[in-house]
Amino acid sequence: MASPSITVFSLLLLLLPLSSALPSHSVLNAAEILADSGFLSMALTLEVVSQSLVPKSPSLTIFAPPDSAFKRAGQPSLSLLQLHFAPLALPLQTLTSLPAGTKIPTLQSGNSLVVTSPPSGAEISLNGVRVTTAASPIYDDGFLIILGVEDFFDPKFQFQAAAPPRIPAPGQKCGSDSSNGTGFPGASWFQGAKGAMRSNGYTVMASLLDLQLMGFKNPPTSLTVFAPVDQSVENPLLDPSVFLRHVVPCRLAWSDLVNLTEGTALPTYLDGFTIRISRSGDVLLLNGAPVYFANMYYGDSVVVHGLQESLVMPEEAAAGESSPEEGGSDSLDDESEF
Q1: What's the rounded Cα separation, in Å, for the pair 330 and 33?
Q2: How confident is the model at residue 14 (pLDDT cuts 50, 70, 90)?
Q3: Which of 75, 115, 170, 248 has the greatest number of C-beta atoms within 10 Å?
Q4: By C-alpha distance, which of 99, 63, 35 is closest to 256?
């Protein structure tokens, strides 16, 4: 059983890029836990490729088939193995919240996984393959998440899509479909969103949410917060536009974002600043920044997605440096239309 696997692992080592943003200790710890959990073939994969898994992403979700699946498949191809690696963190609570038809990017160029979980929520499945560790992950340190699946994914899987969700038209203000006319969302989502951000390393945006959100002239009924990780935010107190340019006036879950067309422009609370949708292969980009933690918080009125980078002003992007003065006159009290 070991020989075919070792051949594939050697091929992976030669062909995958030779750099990775994943912490090396995460990979080593995960390989040990995989082996102890009975996933010896996937453990060998991690040990061999080590830091050559994901060259541009600091996070990774691995869907690990059991050893019996490796034995049945014989010698899995490189592309088949890449279909089991998603370049973003997908905790179980995120996967549970995704409706059927949601696409998940993978390392296999041009091929995504599709959520096929039944409406009952009794299980999680992707490409028709059940996630066997739906109660708890095999490994999860915040950067690297490993979940067991009952078999290899079929790269030719076809999903019969339902009607597409409503999405905002380019250049227009988002609607508020989740609004019930009661005004500002309740305290439960407010505390829940802040708690999710603080516990995952997004304390700056949590603090800005706490300080500024109540300043809206006309309280919003739904929001999407694209929260940059703390290390990427410079001088938040000197630049009030940091919060404004990372918040969209409508609720956009991950399933909505992945169905947005290339070039869609999402309006923000910073006048004139939009978030433009693009893709690099199957990876969704917001003004060039990949989503790092999809559906970090998921509620009826508000969704929070984590970013590894801050969304910068056009002048900052062109100059390659931060300009705290830009957008300094915009505030929730003075300029917001909402």
Answers
A1: 50
A2: very low
A3: 248
A4: 99
Largest CA distance in the chain: 68
Task: Give me the CATH code for the 187-319 domain, please.
Answer: 2.30.180.10
Q: Residues near 310 by Cβ (< 8 Å), separated by ≥ 6?
A: 228, 232, 233, 234, 242, 246, 289
- The pLDDT of residue 103: 85
* 2-148 and 187-319 agree in CATH topology: yes
| Residue 96 contacts residue 121 (beta carbons within 8 Å) | yes
CA atoms within 13 A of residue 235's CA, in its CB half-sphere: 12
**Cα 300 from chain centre:** 19
Which of 172, 190, 167 lies closest to 300 in space, CA to CA? 190
Is the distance from CB of 144 to CB of 62 less than 8 angstroms? yes
CA distances for 157 relative to 83, 116, 299, angstroms? 12, 11, 31
The domain limits of the chain are 2-148, 187-319
pLDDT in tens, 288-314: 888 888 888 888 888 999 888 889 876
**pLDDT for 6:** 36
Q: What does the pLDDT look like over 182-226, one tens digit per residue?
A: 344 445 667 788 888 888 888 888 888 766 655 555 556 788 999
Q: Is the pLDDT of residue 55 over 60?
A: no
The structural architecture, per CATH, of the domain 2-148 is Roll (2.30)
Tell me 200's DSSP state.
T
In order of 46, 259, 295, the CA distances from 61 in angstroms are: 12, 21, 15
d(CA 143, CA 135): 19
Q: Would you say 182 and 189 are in contact if contact means Cβ atoms under 8 Å apart?
A: no
If DSSP codes are grouped into helix, strand and coil, which group holds residue 50?
Answer: helix
State how far the Cα of 186 lies from the Cα of 297, in Å rounded to an integer: 15
- The SS3 assignment for 306 reads strand
pTM for the full predicted model:
0.55
